Fold this protein.
Amino acid sequence: MVTNKRGHILVMVLSLLTLWGTLANPAGQGRSKQANAADSHAAILQRVHTNPVDGAEMVFIPAGKFDMGTDINEIEAQLKRFGLWDLPGTDEVRHCLDEVPKHSVTLPGFWMYKYEVTCRQYQKFIAATGRPAPPNWPGGKLQPGMENYPVTCVTWVDAMAYARWGEVRLAAEQEWEKAAGGADGRLFVWGNDWDPARCNSVERNAGKPLRSFKDANAWARKMFDEGIPATRWLLPVGSIKQDVSPYGCYDMAGNVSEWTASPYEAYPYPAGKAKLIICPEFFMGLRVVKGGCALSPVVACRVTERDFPPTKPEEFMDEFVGFRCAAYETAMPKPGK
Ligand SMILES: [Ca+2]
């Protein structure tokens, strides 16, 4: 553990608070403010709510500030860390450029789905609203055994309609990134070191290192050419216990990538600095997808990853794109629907 002057001062302050708490509450009458504060923080982290509409578990993400995105100067170091800096071409660099610049974001507390929305939950939505089943459900029917898999082949408009039915909403990309990485700037939901066993990614499915987009895509193409269905690579939600965020959200590194509510635009630049439109796809009415999928290489499994399905959000669907929902702290669905 690193200690510094500020750490010592904090320890002193906490010690004084403890002493004050003891003096103020002699013989254990009542408890110190510090103990109560610690309890309430633990209570917040343990707050779980079940959405009565779809039965989804939701975890609470406390209010606060975090740094979103990636500094231009960090891209080289990150790619070197993964052994991807010296590759020919610029695939990996271009993939990170839409995360620039790193910027501070302050969010109020909110609730986030603990898991990707499942086929069982989507089936309930279909039954209640008459919306068509995803086209990858044979005969329009949920296949036995697929109930706890993430729903896929849904457009952004489908996901928005689900959220409206569920009396929740799609997460903004800022909320998604905070729910995935917390506030300490970690590269992956579990920390800074890449470990293919910790999430459902291409390296886990291939059983060998496939670090670059080129290698990952070549392997995926081969699987498709052999007629192996996409569902072969997906897992029921929450299957990999290590793919869990600091707040207890599962599968934010892998399994399926997830629609967010947010338009795909350039991140804000500091006042006085030009906003560089470094990605030609910005401001084209596309929507942000966050997180890696079962065919993603390491770069796409990072917390700061953002991607853009390249066609209209009302048309695009993919066997590796699903979604999860969020809600304002004060706008949780109540039982009774
Ligand atoms: Ca995911």
In short: The pocket of calcium ion is lined by residues 116, 251-252, 255-256, 258, 291 (CB under 6 Å). DSSP finds nine helices and eleven strands in the chain. The domain at 5-22+35-328 is CATH 3.90.1580.10 (paralog of FGE (formylglycine-generating enzyme)).
